[in-house]
Amino acid sequence: MPVVVVVPPLGxxxxxxxxxxxxxxxxxxxxxxxxxxELETEKISVEVTAFKGGTLAKIIVLEGEKVQIGQKLxxxxxxxxxxxxxxxxxxxxxxxxxxxxKAPERVERxxxxxxxxxxxxSPAARRLAKERGxxxxxxxxxxxxxxxxxxxxxxxxxxxxxxxxxxxxxxAEGLEERVPLSPMRRRxxxxxxxxxxxxxHVTTVDEADMSAVQGLIERYRPLVEERYGTHLTYLPFxxxxxxxxxxxxxxxxxxIEGEEIVLKRYYHIGVAVAVEEGLxxxxxxxxxxxxxxxxSRELEGLALRARERKLTPDEVVGSxxxxxxxxxxxxxxxxPIINQPNVAILGVHKVVERPVVRKGELxxxxxxxxxxxxxxxxxxxxxxxxxLGRVREYLEEPDLLLLxx
Amino acid sequence: xxxTREDLERLYxxxxxxxxxxxxxxxxxxxxxxxxxxxxxxxxxxxxVVPTYLLKKDDFIGPAHREIGAMITRGVPIREVVCQVYAxxxxxxxGKMHPCTFGHPxxxxxxxxxxxxxxxxVAVGVALGYRNHRRDNLAVTFFGEGATCKGDxxxxxxxxxxHKLPVVFICxxxxxxxxxxxxxQTAAEDISVRAVAYGFPxxxxxxxxxxxxxxxxxxxxxxxRSGGGPTLIECTTYRWYGHSDIDLAPYRPQEEVExxxxxxxxxxxxxxxxxxxxxxxxxxxxxxxxxxxxxDEAIDYxxxxxxxxxxxxxxxVYATAL
Amino acid sequence: MKEVTYIQAINDAxxxxxxxxPSVIILGxxxxxxxxxxxxxxxxxxxxxxxxxxxxxxxxSMIIGVSVGAALSGLRPVAEIQFADFISPAxxxxxxxxxxxxWRNNGALNVPMTVRCPYGGGVGGGVYHSxxxxxxxxxxxxxxxxxxxxxxxxxxxxxxxxCEDPVLYFEHKKLYRSIKExxxxxxxIVPIRKARIARKGKDVTLxxxxxxxxxxxxxxxxxxxxxxxxxxxxxxxLYPMDKETIFDSVGRTRRAVVIHEAPKMGGIxxxxxxxxxxxxxxxxxxxxxxxxxxxxxFPFAPTMENYYxxxxxxxxxxxxxxxxx
Lengths: 405, 322, 325
Description:
The complex is a heterotrimer.
Chain A: E1 3-6, E2 16-22, E3 29-30, E4 35-40, E5 45-49, E6 54-59, E7 66-68, E8 72-77, H1 85-93, H2 96-99, H3 123-132, H4 136-143, H5 150-160, H6 183-198, E9 201-209, H7 211-228, H8 235-248, E10 254-257, E11 260-263, E12 269-271, E13 273-275, E14 278-280, E15 283-284, H9 292-307, E16 321-325, E17 344-348, E18 352-358, E19 361-375, H10 381-396, H11 399-404
Parallel strand pairs in A: 12-16, 16-17
Antiparallel strand pairs in A: 1-8, 2-4, 2-7, 3-6, 4-5, 6-8, 9-19, 10-11, 12-15, 13-14, 17-19, 18-19
Helix pairs in contact in A: 3-5, 8-9, 8-10
Chain B: H1 5-30, H2 45-54, E1 60-62, H3 68-74, H4 78-86, H5 119-132, E2 139-144, H6 151-163, E3 167-173, E4 176-177, E5 180-181, E6 202-206, H7 210-225, E7 231-236, H8 254-262, H9 265-275, H10 281-303
Parallel strand pairs in B: 1-2, 2-3, 3-7, 6-7
Antiparallel strand pairs in B: 4-5
Chain C: E1 2-5, H1 6-20, E2 24-28, H2 44-48, E3 53-55, H3 60-72, E4 76-80, H4 91-104, E5 114-119, E6 143-145, H5 150-162, E7 167-172, E8 180-183, E9 196-199, E10 204-208, H6 211-225, E11 230-234, E12 237-239, H7 243-253, E13 256-263, H8 268-279, E14 289-293, H9 302-308, H10 312-324
Parallel strand pairs in C: 2-3, 2-4, 4-5, 5-7, 6-7, 10-11, 10-13, 13-14
Antiparallel strand pairs in C: 1-8, 6-12, 9-11
């Protein structure tokens, strides 16, 4: 069975390190106890050595990335072990124990709750019932078990023995419905409130002429569909345009940690996907290294898995910048909330044919509003506007993407 | 006891096994194979292996947290030593304790509380039991010079002296209490003078010299067994690595570390064995091969042995059913 | 039957246990030649000799640490900490060593030892000779008992000495010679972790031990005149507690008041109140009340000492409030 190379303990209180260097390449032979990678923490730099000899079959975490203690760095195939590419991808997503086929851990059972018979009524309920001469057993019969609180006694009194002159309930029955927040809704709610509280949001708007991209899509969609099996849309172009612009305006691809701004030289783009219960933001890792077709494919895969709720935890974390497409539902313009800990989010919208003046003439063009919400702590207006202008430029002249790579 | 040629060869074997396993465990820790941390005893092996070798199998040992050599010398299977470090179900402590809480009740080595000096009064109490029961046993306890600065050390030695109990105190003076150098720990000339205040002998020996440690222990053990009371043996030695394996020991000058590595007890002993014709190249190669295989087998075993069940934590809080 | 004081019951238990089992030894400060500052170990040295009755130097940590070791090599030490207030230097050996040793060694080693600790106020002892420190030892692996009567003093001490776990035995100094009772001459044991109903009642449960048990019983008499029938529980074992007896009683009376000498904050009363709130909440008719020592050091001047300790009057008042709620 393969052996997982993990981030070793790095000292008390140290939880994080950066992969500074891989000393072995994928496919290269590794001896037992031989160093395979170098890590660096704020305190020390350490070599990670191999637990067993074999072949470095997969590098999971690339140089420059941050890692946590115990995180999987790579996989070593032992002597004579053949692992297919697909199998490797699958392994990389598993827990270390599953890969090394350890004896399964026993799952802790929740202790059985201690039941107390009789009527369960809170002290407050008992006191009220006693004061008003209510027999608690009548309430239990109605509620068929459960716990009686002061509120239950009050409701019982309202219904059974309405006091004269009491006002009726504000809303008649059936006109309101109360639905508890689902876990996902609650998470979204918490995240949105947190984001608005933490980051002073400013939204700037620009408008892109999508003629060129539209032309490319129309021209190549059938070919791409046939040759690569993916349906071409605007989004991969927008992602590429954003990534190229981010390279020029690194402040937009950063996060604020304490007293520092962390500028990231890797481009993990979160893309908001609407699902039935709410919203998921899967992340396209290393978007700068991926072409239009590859982005298109990955988007389709992520969106599908998001809707089927099959995303793995690491597919939804680690974004450095996010994009939200309200256009699919028909929105013309919106002011998105930043996906923390990013400092900016790009909202893209419906492409609409509108009259514009070009070279003194009124012409019809497919236009789209680009809205950038940014964290004013990290970015100032000038930078945000120039960044967004650069996104527009890439979208209006997609050939530049080809030239710059 | 007098050491025969076989004893000397066996001692070399045990020292090498202790060293090799310790070094391998350090690496395994750095490869993330077990949780917690690791306390290496490399450099100090002679101070535990030799005294343990001279004891009877049922003499009590009260260890601190670097006594892997005591476990190995007592004959605890290497598998169980590795299981201890891996916190597996088959560990002598059932996986309840942190790595390097080396001990094994069935082998009369206490699984210690690794707070400094706490094992010292316990060893004295065990010796009190031996005296009351007229048993021909003695209790030995290991600790560093750091522990000799704590009250428990002084209270225990004082009481042991009053009652002339069969206990021997073995201090591994490695010159650092984690990072604090000896000069900031005591103004005394050495550690063994502390025995004077308690009315029994204290000796200082080169803890990296197997034969010197042997001489000192032989004399002290004999005295204790014959009713002559306790002895404090100070073995000067050096731990090559940090206090634990996440301590890079920046507080020690590199020249000092290098100088001590030259005083490594194992090659010194090996030279002696070669000069005496007790050990040969072939014999040594044989030993190294066997040790490597034994260690590989033990690690494989521990790697594949089950972790404790979560509910195991609930076991053995009390001996009595309450 | 013979009538004995609380201290005589302790002394009798020690004599009988040492006769019964030659592995029982005594150690502590002044326990030998002097027979103990309270005379609890009187006559033992003469009868059992220096090897079994050991006058130790003033070194509490050593006394406990040596007891642990002695227990490991087949003895059953009964250590005396002259005043419970002196136990703090031995905290390490009790809490870190003795309490965890059986668990640490995966059940392969036992620590059968008893630590006798004279404790409690009302004796004009001032801060270092009056405290109730039982709450310091709510530690898994330790057993804490505290008898309130001569019968229990003898039966619980025997149970502690025969127990395979470390037992802290808190004996109340004020009760030593003020409480007398007839106890059987034949052998008996009071089981550990079994509380006792000292008085039956239906309206409220008073939970207490030691000197405070007697004040609670007095309070119950006065309350009966007002028509409040209080049930009084004598805890006997303080840790781990006899939950069953407490829950059974409070489940019936639906009201609970805990009374102890130690400061209210962090005392065992808080633990009892929390257990009741957690598991018996739906049966309670009133909040659980704690009547306890003040959150201050223990004072010397009699005016302050009387103010510090829960009095019968304070208990009556507190129970009234609980019953009115």
